Amino acid sequence: MKKYLYIGAICFSGFMAAMCSTHKEEYYTKSLEFPAEATEEEKIDMASRLVPDARQLQWQDLEMTAFLHFGVNTFTDREWGDGKEDPKVFNPANLDCRQWVKTLKDAGFKMVILTAKHHDGFCLWPTEVTDHSVKSSDWLDGKGDVMRDLRAACDEYGMKLGVYLSPWDRNAEVYGDSPKYNDFFVAQLTELLTNYGKIDEVWFDGACGEGPNGKKQEYDWARFRETIARLQPDAVMAISGEDVRWVGNEGGVGRETEWSATVYAPTTLPECEEQNGSLEITGTSKDLGSRELVAKSKRLYWYPSEVDVSVRPGWFYHDSENVKSLRDLANIYLTSVGRNSVLLLNIPPDRNGRIAPGDSIRLMELRRWIDTNFTDNLVNDKGAALNGSATVNCVVIEEDISRGQRVEEFTVIGKTPSGDEVELAKGTTVGKKRILTFDPTEVSEVSVRVDKYRGKGVNLLPVKAYSIVMPDAITETGNGFTKVDNTGWRAVTKGAEPAIDGDDATFFTTSDKEIVVDMGQPVEVAGFTYLPRQDGDTEGMIFKYEFAVSADGKNWTPCQLPGEFSNIVNNPISQCVYLPRNQRARYIRLTNLGEVEGRDVTTAAEIGVLTK
Ligand code: FUL
Questions:
Q1: Pairing, β 490-491 against β 514-531
Q2: DSSP string spanning 160-190?
Q3: Alpha-helix runs per DSSP H in 374-447
Q4: pTM for the whole thing?
Q5: With 578 labelled, which of 182, 369, 409, 488 sits at a CA distance of 20 to 30 A?
Q6: Residue 18 in 3-state DSSP?
Q7: Nearest to 496 by CA among 420, 589, 570, 569
Q8: What number does the ligand 1 atom closest to the CA of 316 have?
Q9: Which residue has a Cα nearest atom 1 of ligand 1?
Q10: Residue 470: exposure state from Cβ atoms within 10 A (0-12, 13-18, ≥19)
Q11: Tens digits of residue pLDDT in 82-127
Q12: Crossing angle of helices 221-231/178-195, nearest 10°?
């Protein structure tokens, strides 16, 4: 815990609020421990003076970072490789890191993070510690190095670079032999942090899908942290790391109440079990920073949220998937950057080794949408509309987080041209940036009233107001597959109706492994969909599956080798599986070969069939 004194006036510049403090303020950088005898009031006051360190502050300024998922999965069409891939599958015809970085630069990103190694263990740089890398591929006769090319492109375009290095490694023989794998991992980390210039973010994924019977690796987080601090002192350590927190979902949505000053302890710290356990919170909990939690907590962390989400349903490029609509991406911007988070947007290069044209176009559209909508601030810094009056439907509110996060509740108030005050919107936390939208209203003044705050006073920047236009909901361009209408379908498995009722909110629960459905008539089955339960719980979610079809409900043909819904826990969207060839059948059977945590229960919100 480091403290420093800030001496000088703390000035609140938000219109209408008159809470300024002009005394000495004592700040706590990054984390603090409450004295055992501290009262709730004292704790809240201390919480108001917890501030980010310099690296976090810089990082939060980035607002949007690009993520690049690229590797053997790009070529095997999977989301999680099993580590048994032949390195020769990695063979991009026309890999062009300059095209990636130029595209991302044009789209307004300031940093790019590459999956140097995903869970399958295949390394995109020629590491010394395993042959499972680009050097065993045919790409550039084994002489290629994606990290090297990306570094050069980042230098050319003035882009920061980050690395994703998956702690979970399904290929490394020593994985699970803890000290040996830690040495192996530190060696890889050292190569990445030594040979590729300045690295600004190190992303350690929290995923480990081995399940209860898998290998258990004890990671030496303290050593990983020390390695980063020594080799790249300016880099933030994200997710399994203490500088940047995973928002808790992969859908692009920050919390409406999003505290950067949080009681949630990074899972890489020794006290995490005690701290998070005693408060009964996890990284996905709704509340990570309320007064009630702070009052109960021994500690507090400046641990800002990062919203990672892909422009496509999956993290890796799949031909069968479509890029999200501009409307989806605009909404994601509002619920991430607009909710005190950095948006980490994934754009997966394709098998050629390039950002696909459709993705690139969508990124440019997003940039244009942000620029068009958020350039003309309609109010001056006194809160008055610039042209006497203006119609607004959106405000941007910002706290000077270098002096902590303090606002707990606020109301946005407008003055109509006739002089009446109208409430435009209400919110809770602000933090780095809060964007709120509301019905278009003509106003001559806009102000923010802080209704509840922590500490001696708040530090708001002048409120900005805009008239924004949301993009139309655009129908996705099809990928040739359509969903079979399920009218008249019958659940053969007793009680399985909720899995075919078309209602995503209901789900079927069974202690059986199979769900059998009669479609009433023969269908050309080209694939199927499985939507896991949508209530936030993971129990019964299928991880390993088999899918089979039948003409009579008695004789079954499995459609392919058993598969897995790799990332279903973190990203519980509808899982689409495309079959190697069409199968004509009347009955379908989805079998649970392994629940996400090995439990003896199966759940399904919806099962569907695709035809082509
Ligand atoms: C998850 C991983 O399992 C996904 O594959 C992806 O890399 C995402 C960013 O994080 O936990």
A1: antiparallel
A2: EEEEEE-S--SS-TTTTSHHHHHHHHHHHHH
A3: none
A4: 0.89
A5: 488
A6: coil
A7: 589
A8: 5
A9: 207
A10: middle
A11: 999 999 999 999 999 999 999 999 999 999 999 999 999 999 999 9
A12: 20
